Amino acid sequence: MIEKRDSWDIEKYQKLVNSLPKAGTIALTFLQPNAGEKILDLGCGEGTLTEKIQSMGCHTLGIDSSPKMIKACASRNINVQLMDARFLKFDEEFDAVFSHASLHWMNGAEMVVKGVAKALKNGGRFIAECGGIGNVSIIESSLINAVINAGFDAHSPWYNLDETDYKAMLESHGLKVEFIHLIPIMEPLRNGIRAWLEIFAHQFLIAVPHEMHSHIFDEAEKLMRPLLCNEEGMWHADYVRLSVKAIKTPVSA
């Protein structure tokens, strides 16, 4: 999905990614990339995981809807294209489609699944890890309440996926699900909640004047602190990850 505002701060994003060394490791383990494979990274961001896959000898293509993210990838010599994931233009080209922490940013989930199925070769695999139902629900509700209390309209930018519905959707497009699991994780935020909000919560503030952004985040922090900050002052994100592996089933003659 092309964002209403490409407000990613790449420097802050990379700093946060570097502070979470385990980010994406589960999905990469399930991907099991083999040298020589052609792999599409769907929602590649600034390319940290795309680069890892490429270093394993794979032919990678990263796509993202953010021009800033694409520019960051290109600076790392990663093959990338600016593309809306709802309108993939590939036809049986990839051994695998990989997506980490991206699908919950995209509306039109069925359009994305249809494009993924078409992009895969028969027998190709779709490996994804994204926000599932309940993902960051405390953070989300706190932000919405803070924005509304300040007198502005509030809308979540996230489309967290339902396990049962998503499995049915995948299989309706010829992707046989090998596993699909919701995984609750209280993720430690070693850089604090404010750093997380400044990177990932910008879409909540589209209707809010810039000079009020800090106030909104202060109010949201007050609301979530009792549930997400422990006695030692360590903040956590209340993640619920949806982990998926599906195989494109060859069409019978």
Give a written overview of the molecule.
The chain is built from nine helices and seven strands. With 253 residues, it is of the alpha/beta class. It has one domain (10-248): Rossmann fold. β1 (38-42), α3 and β2 form a beta-alpha-beta unit.
What fraction strand? 15-25%
In the CATH hierarchy, the architecture is 3-Layer(aba) Sandwich
What's the SSE pattern?
Answer: HHEHEHEEHEHHEHHE
Poorly predicted ranges: none
Shape: globular
Helix percentage range: 25-40%
Determine the number of helices (DSSP H or I, runs of at least 4 residues): 9
CATH class: Alpha Beta
Determine the structural class based on helices, strands and strand pairing: alpha/beta
Strand order of the largest sheet: 3-2-1-4-5-7-6
CATH superfamily: Vaccinia Virus protein VP39
The CA-CA distance between the termini, in Å, is 35 Å
Can you tell me the number of structural domains?
1
List the helices and strands and how they pair.
Elements (H helix, E strand, L loop, with lengths): L9 H9 L6 H7 L6 E5 L5 H8 L3 E6 L2 H8 L5 E3 L11 E7 L8 H11 E12 L5 H13 L13 H10 L2 E15 L2 H9 L12 H16 L6 E14 L5
Parallel strand pairs: 1-2, 1-4, 2-3, 4-5
Antiparallel strand pairs: 5-7, 6-7
Helix pairs in contact: 6-9
Question: What distinguishing features does this structure have?
Answer:
253 residues, alpha/beta, Rossmann fold, 7-stranded mixed sheet, 9 helices, 7 strands, globular
Q: What does this entry show, briefly?
A:
This protein has 253 residues and is α/β, with parallel strands linked by helices.
